[in-house]
Amino acid sequence: MSWLAAYRTATWAALPAVKLLLARRTRRGKEDPARRRERLGFAARPRSAGPLIWAHAASVGESLSLLPLIDRLLARLPTAEILVTSGTVTSAGLLAQRLPPRAFHQYVPIDHPGAVERFLDHWRPNLAIWVESELWPNLIAATSRRRVPMVLLNAKMSERAMRGWRRFPGLIRTLLGAFDLVLAQDETQAARLNRLGARSAVTVGDLKSSAAPLPADAAELAALTQAIGDRPVWLAAQTHDGEEAIVADAHRRIAAGRPGLLTLLAPRHPNRAPAIAALLAERGLTVARRSAAAPIEPATDLYLADTLGEMGLFYRLGGIVLVAGSLLAPGTIGGHNPIEPALLGAAILHGPDMVNCAANAAALDAAGGAWPVVGAAGIAEAVGALLDDPARRTAMGRAAEAAAAAEAGVVDRALERLEPLIAPLAAGTSHARA
Length: 434
Prior knowledge:
Layout: H1 3-13, H2 15-27, E1 52-56, H3 60-65, H4 67-76, E2 81-86, H5 89-98, E3 103-107, H6 113-123, E4 127-131, H7 137-145, E5 150-155, H8 159-165, H9 169-177, E6 181-184, H10 187-196, E7 202-203, H11 218-228, E8 233-239, H12 243-255, E9 262-267, H13 273-282, E10 287-289, E11 302-304, H14 311-318, E12 320-323, H15 339-343, E13 347-350, H16 358-367, E14 370-372, H17 375-388, H18 390-405, H19 410-426
Parallel strand pairs: 1-2, 1-4, 2-3, 4-5, 5-6, 6-7, 8-9, 8-12, 9-11, 10-11, 12-13, 13-14
Helix pairs in contact: 4-19, 6-7, 11-14, 12-17, 16-18
């Protein structure tokens, strides 16, 4: 029996356990109870008669990176619709706000054969685009059996993931081989994907580099700018468990010589805010939570940005932005996207583990727009130096913005590669068969 057949059999048997897991995730706020049937493959809306492109992205960053491409695809295909699937409540909320007309969100079905077939029977996509590296075997295999053209876009494969997949060479070769086109973030990713079985993966760049600057509400920006006043300020963005303690230590070190320091802290998962606030309070720091509408007062040490969809606001306020997910042991998280704050002219700091965005981090480093740091002491040194030297901070921000803008052609290059698969949809024909 092949690994794929064994996986399919195992997932058939696992359905009761999976339903229990979904119920548990719902109680913890990680599933939307009103839309949980979508996770079992039941659609929440009818399929229109025109062409349908299905784009799957695991979570927030991957979902938002699709937005410029979605706009271009809809302009190219005026009768088409785009179904975007993801698996997190956070991504669903943000996509509801930002998807244009003729694009809509559904939750991705669990990777169970029954849920997958139900999903595909309803939606009958004409083209499937998967983003980055979330590879669900049943969903990929079932889509391939229906002869739906498939693209792996913005593809990446870390060294650690590659070692893991090498334990199942037949399975990963089958999965990657199902994609008609594999567009990798950089040459390193392309080489790894090709070694594992992709059909001639090629590099077009990181799709996140083509994103428009994140938006911000002008009134909220003005209000927070006034509340901060002339206080020295910096932002620790997209932090994970274990990183907030490092940020708290760094804050103390920086504040020792800079009265009035305000640290903005935006956790990757805002639902962790109560635990983060408790941790900071235990360290004697005064915390104001945005979700509670707490004001920034003179005694406030840290302002906890525990809301959704406001990163554009806080990137603009910070000026100096530490890109987190990069401070823990190598392989723990792998860093987050530095392009978003760079596009807004922030001076970028990042820790040593930026494997998820290695090419972007290297480009920013080389351009003088980023400063690699290690631990609380390294963060404090860099933030302190930039606060004390506004001209240096401004120069770093301009260098970061220029380096980010230089990658703006990724969507054009991706569309050029996608054109042979898009053209039949524009002509009214389709590769896909139900």
